Amino acid sequence: MASSSRGHFSSRIGFIMAAAGSAVGLGNVWGFPTKAADNGGAAFLVIYLVMVFLLAYPMLVAELTIGRYGQSNPISSIRSIWKSNRFAAGSFGFIGLLTAAFILSFYAIIAGWLMGYAVAPILQSMGMETVADWLVNFGDSRNIVLALLFGLVTIFVVQKGVADGIEKWSTRLMPMLFVLFAVMIIYIFTQDGAMEGLKMYLVPDLSHINGGLLVDAMGQAFFSLSLGCCSMMVYGSYLKKDVNLPKTAAQVATIDTGVAFCAGLLILPAMFVAKNHGVEIFTKTGELKSSADLVFTVLPSMFETMGGIGIALSFCFFVLMVIAALTSSISMLEVPVAAAQDELKWERHVATWVIGGLILIASVIISLHFGTLFGIVVDATTVYMQPLLGAVWAVVVGWIWKRNKLLEELKQGNPEIESSLFWRIWPWYVKFICPVAILMVFAYPHF
């Protein structure tokens, strides 16, 4: 169990902003709209919302509950439940830490690019063409410098602690993100072509629904809500015991899903506005062109055609992306830092700099061998480890944790929960439906 000096969120709104910030990242603002555009727009949106409700939300409650019960890092928290096999518990906790660290190692590279794209149009308008080109063109030096810069900002926030670092910055950055979203969506809706994109996004064509779409939607729901990689478990460990976990998890999931929905409202119409400006977004067969780098090709091309307003919009859009990335990267670094504090008794600032430094070294290695390593690290962590670890946490909560102990933990923030519909459904749902559904959807591409 944790020491009395362990940090806590000072307010419920602080936790909700931090947890929503962890969930709201490139998975929402970049991944979700791209996958939606690739999978028929509204058809993907419908299945994604179903996956969030049926799989991601029950698992979010499970991870937060494990964390708050243990009041410690994932290794100790899982061991406090899985007492019969401390080695297995510790091993899965450690794999969760590694997953978070490796996600951050590639995340820092992408977030670095976003920083470059935010600044480049301004430098270009000031006549600094060479620097602007360097910031937006792929290259080892640019990838490394910007990844290091983004990593250092993440380290700066995390070393400040839970209330003074994570909570303080999340409650500043998240409202800023909401305002930027609102301004940009309103502006894009006034442009020619936007309604065509809106129609694709909101009017379902069910012929697009297939097994591949189900896999993409589930993976997106897990990645989007930071599930499997222990971020939510660690944030749960900083919660006070009087917090109603199912209700708080619902608020976090709602904000996260709302941001993903808004990202679609912005980016799909923006794609068709870009098309209206002469930017090619679809191939001759009607498939989305360069879906992986949609944000780095289609949108900058559109902003360029808009003159002065385009420079301002480009800056706002990429700042929005950097904020989303930062709120997530903070939670990923916090996972191994919390473990080093609890297990190794390291001071927070030492743990943050040592572990943050090691992750940045991994980012440099990935940057130098980008073609070989980047895709492998992305797939290994987000496609494989996040859903598989999610299935393990479902087994821990559903099969290993004694039902009365689980109820006791949930009752601390909600004394009436025993008689609720949630308690009648959720434990059985996490025990039987979640692990089977995760593994079935996960196994689909391999058959």
Number of helices: 18
Unreliable sequence segments? none
Number of strands: 0
**Shape designation:** globular
Sheet-strand content, in percent, reads: under 5%
How is the quaternary structure best described?
Answer: single chain
Class by alpha and beta content: mainly alpha
The main β sheet shows up as: none
Radius of gyration: 21 Å
Mean pLDDT: 87
Helix proportion = over 70%
Q: Report how far apart the termini are.
A: 43 Å
Query: In sequence order, what are the helices and strands, one letter per element?
Result: HHHHHHHHHHHHHHHHHH
What's the helix and strand layout?
Elements: H1 12-23, H2 26-38, H3 42-70, H4 74-81, H5 86-125, H6 129-136, H7 140-158, H8 162-189, H9 194-202, H10 211-224, H11 231-237, H12 245-276, H13 294-304, H14 308-344, H15 348-368, H16 370-400, H17 403-411, H18 421-443
Short description:
It contains 18 helices and no strands. It has 447 residues and is mainly alpha-helical.
Q: What does it look like?
A:
- The chain is mainly alpha-helical.
- It has 18 helices and no strands.
- Helix 2 packs antiparallel against helix 10, helix 3 packs across helix 10 and helix 5 runs antiparallel to helix 6.
- The model has no long low-confidence stretch (mean pLDDT 87).
